[in-house]
Write a structure and sequence with these properties.
Elements lengths: L10 E11 L9 E2 L4 E2 L6 E2 L2 E9 L2 E4 L12 E2 L4 E10 L5 E13 L1 E2 L5 E2 L6 E6 L7 H11 L2 E2 L5 E7 L8 E9 L18 E12 L21 E3 L2 H10 L4 E5 L3 E2 L4 E3 L2 E5 L4 E3 L11 E4 L3 E5 L3 E4 L9 E4 L2 E4 L3 E4 L7 E4 L3 E4 L3 E4 L15 E3 L6 E4 L2 E4 L19 E7 L2 E6 L3 E3 L2 H8 L9 E6 L3 E5 L1 E3 L4 E5 L4 E6 L11 E3 L4 E11 L6 E5 L2 E10 L8 E5 L2 E6 L3 E3 L5 E8 L9 E5 L6 E3 L1 E8 L2 E3 L7 E5 L2 E4 L5 H5 L6 E7 L2 E6 L1
Parallel strand pairs: 17-18, 18-21, 19-22, 20-23, 21-24, 22-25, 23-26, 24-27, 25-28, 26-29, 27-30, 28-31, 29-32, 30-33, 31-34, 37-38, 38-41, 39-42, 40-43, 41-44, 42-44, 43-45, 44-46, 45-47, 46-48, 46-49, 47-50, 48-51, 49-52, 50-53, 51-55, 52-56
Antiparallel strand pairs: 1-3, 1-16, 2-7, 4-5, 5-6, 5-8, 8-15, 9-14, 9-16, 10-11, 12-13, 12-15, 34-36, 35-36, 53-54, 56-58, 57-58
């Protein structure tokens, strides 16, 4: 799972840069190439989504690391020589995943052959992908297998191997693939580079990406999963690779980063591209070749920036604007853009270009006032003589307040229905109107203090960044609370509750209405024993309640009163052997007449992992199944595992018009009939 729900658990699991070089020596009939693997993020585990890319070394498989050599060191390559590499994709977690293994040219250095003709090495090296772990006794066998599989020149590479892997013991958890690279015997002086020419070189990208998928119908029952999950079409690790990827891109392609690098050439777009920063940094140096608009979207172009990375122009000239819409369309959803200039801004619009900002962080570190007017240095700006438009509905801005609009033309950059709130000196957060942005533990406590006391208060909170070790959330009768986590994670260290029983990460009392959406809430202390103690009318949407960080968290949701509706991509994850859902009708109390219900509606696509208990507490007697209807559980969608229920017991909670299928041992998926 990803901390950012709006990304649909999209995970970059591996990015390999396979450097391939070849030299056909004058008068010789052999060639050589070496390889190196550049891979700082071979394996990323998030929650229980955990995958690994491994290669065969001897008789065993090992994880690909930064300095792994996939091919033989110092191998001499001649026409007809081949090597085969066995790779394994392994699901190490407890969640099903869909993976994609792709191979593409990231960068290529052309050369001139001994005949004086330009050539590309990629036109002469052949490549094949063969399913399974294939072992060849000789290079000739490998070449024959590659030719039978249908090889292609590296220049024409279009490799996209996909598949679904399940947790160990739940289905196929690993798959093998064999890469064969060889030089045909027919290659001659046409690929023999001249003594005074540049050595030809190819950088290949081997990329493994994965997204979580609930157990599917063919193996696990549910084919309605992660419809919005997106893979990058190509991953790049330097300027040359980025330029090549853009040159070859089709409208709508996603280009992802798999390394930090400095931008050495101006990026001018007239295509529709998504740039996935993927936690990496593009540095804008003080380089005149970049002009003052190093990343610009021209008329007819559209650039969407997403992913939690950085575009850093703090060392660039004071006249540089790192990202601009120069007649084109720029959409910024995530990431940080930072500058250090009294003259310019992070983002600029001109020639009718449009900028839409829905999230991200924009920082101008200049300690000087704006050079062409009074006030703080700019974060956003439009041309005075030929302006574009900037519309902001989210994000954090350090410098000039986006609500103040352009320094010369005035107005506001903040869209109608939204507000800009100062949260620190020269720091502003844009959120929907009438919400309180939160960036700290104390800020959350201040925002929540009104709803903890009975009354008639309506409080909306926008979590603007991860917040750790907070005091638990408490609501009282008559109040309404809406928390949008904004794709962020809040961890609770100080539980709340009734005097003497402060063990709850949330205590949502009777008569209150609560909505939690779009993010993660989890314990960060062993003193949190119940993550959500509910007596309210509660809605959960696209939220993760994850108790796995504390083995003492015995309950994720314990509902004794009120109606709970759970929808969308919501995950409820208990520690091993603990309770995910506790639905109790508490007789002989002030909650008896109202009772409680939990409903997973038809939009539910997430996963519940943990025991399910539905019962009536009658004095010291626990009554199951519930006789009086005071505690109900209704399930219309989702995947459920480790529930402690048989399929027949589970089906009791699935209404007419829906079907529960046991898709693996103890794993149940609910879909509409």
């Amino acid at each position: 799972m990803s901390n950012a729900k709006n990304t649909k658990r999209s995970l970059i699991v591996s990015g390999l840069s396979l450097a391939v070089s070849c030299a056909l020596l004058l008068g010789s009939t052999f060639a050589w190439f070496t390889d190196s693997v550049v891979n700082s993020n071979n394996r990323i585990a998030s929650g229980e989504l955990d995958v690994d890319l491994l290669y065969k070394t001897g008789e065993t498989y090992a994880s690909v690391q930064k300095d792994t050599n996939l091919f033989k060191d110092n191998a001499l390559w001649e026409p007809g020589y081949a090597e085969a590499v066995n790779l394994k994709v392994k699901n190490l977690g407890s969640l099903a995943l869909e993976y994609r293994l792709s191979v593409n040219i990231v960068n290529e250095t052309e050369s001139v052959n001994v005949n004086g003709d330009p050539f590309k090495l990629s036109d002469y090296i052949q490549f094949a992908v063969i399913d399974g772990e294939q072992i060849y006794a000789t290079g000739a066998e490998a070449v024959a297998a590659a030719e039978a599989a249908g090889p292609t020149s590296i220049a024409a590479l279009d490799v996209n191997e996909t598949g679904v892997l399940y947790p160990d013991g739940k289905g196929t958890s690993e798959e093998y693939v064999t890469l064969v690279v060889y030089m045909p015997e027919t290659v001659g002086n046409e690929a023999n580079y001249a003594a005074d020419a540049a050595q030809p070189q190819i950088d290949l990208g081997v990329n493994l990406t994965a997204t979580q998928t609930p157990y599917e119908t063919d193996g696990f029952g549910n084919d309605q999963y992660d419809a919005d999950a997106a893979y990058a079409d190509v991953y790049v690790a330097d300027t040359a690779a980025l330029m090549t990827a853009i040159e070859n891109a089709q409208d709508g392609d996603i280009i992802g980063l798999n390394a930090d690098f400095s931008l050495e050439q101006q990026l001018a777009l007239d295509k529709e591209i998504v740039l996935e920063l993927n936690g990496k940094t593009i540095t804008i140096p003080d380089n005149a070749d970049l002009n003052t608009t190093p990343i610009r979207v021209n008329a007819g172009g559209k650039l969407t920036i997403t992913g939690d990375g950085v575009i850093d122009a703090t060392d660039a000239s004071d006249d540089v604007v790192p990202v601009s819409a120069m007649g084109g369309e720029l959409i910024i959803q995530e990431g940080t853009i930072q500058v250090d200039t009294p003259n310019e801004s992070c983002v600029y619009a001109m020639y009718g270009g449009t900028v839409t900002i829905t999230g991200g962080t924009f920082v101008n570190n200049s300690t000087e006032d704006y050079a062409y007017g009074d006030g703080a240095p700019l974060t956003l700006n439009v041309s005075n003589g030929n302006p574009g438009t900037i519309t902001v509905t989210g994000g954090t801005f350090q410098g000039r307040n986006p609500a103040d609009g352009d320094d010369n033309l005035g107005g506001t950059f903040v869209a109608a229905g939204y507000q800009s709130t100062q949260v620190a000196e020269n720091t502003y957060i844009v959120t929907p109107a009438d919400t309180t942005p939160v960036i700290s533990r104390d800020g959350l406590a201040d925002a929540l203090q009104d709803v903890a006391v009975a009354g008639n208060k309506d409080v909306s909170i926008q979590i603007a960044q991860d917040v750790a070790d907070v005091t638990g959330i408490k609501t009282a009768n008559g109040n309404s609370l809406k928390v949008d986590f904004g794709g962020n994670t809040v961890s609770v260290a100080q539980p709340v509750g009734s005097a003497g029983t402060e063990t709850n990460g949330m205590q949502l009392l009777q008569g209150s209405m609560v909505t939690l959406k779009n993010g993660t809430y989890k314990p960060s202390s062993s003193t949190v024993q119940i993550l959500v103690q509910n007596y309210s009318d509660l809605t959960l949407e696209d939220v993760t309640l994850d108790g796995t960080s504390s083995s003492n968290c015995g309950y994720i949701i314990s509902s004794n009163c009120g109606d709970v509706v759970i929808k969308g991509d919501t995950d409820i994850i208990a520690p091993a052997g603990k309770i995910a859902l506790d639905v109790m009708h508490w007789e002989g109390t002030g909650y008896e007449d109202e009772g409680t219900s939990i409903t997973f509606d038809e939009t539910m696509t997430g996963t519940v992992d943990g025991k399910i208990e539905v019962y009536c507490q009658r004095g010291d007697q626990t009554v199951k199944p519930v006789e009086d209807g005071g505690a109900t559980l209704t399930i219309k969608g989702g995947t459920f595992m480790n529930t402690g229920l048989t399929l027949e017991e589970f089906k009791a909670f699935v209404p007419a018009g829906y079907v529960a299928t046991e898709t693996a041992d103890g794993v149940y998926t609910v879909t509409a009939e």
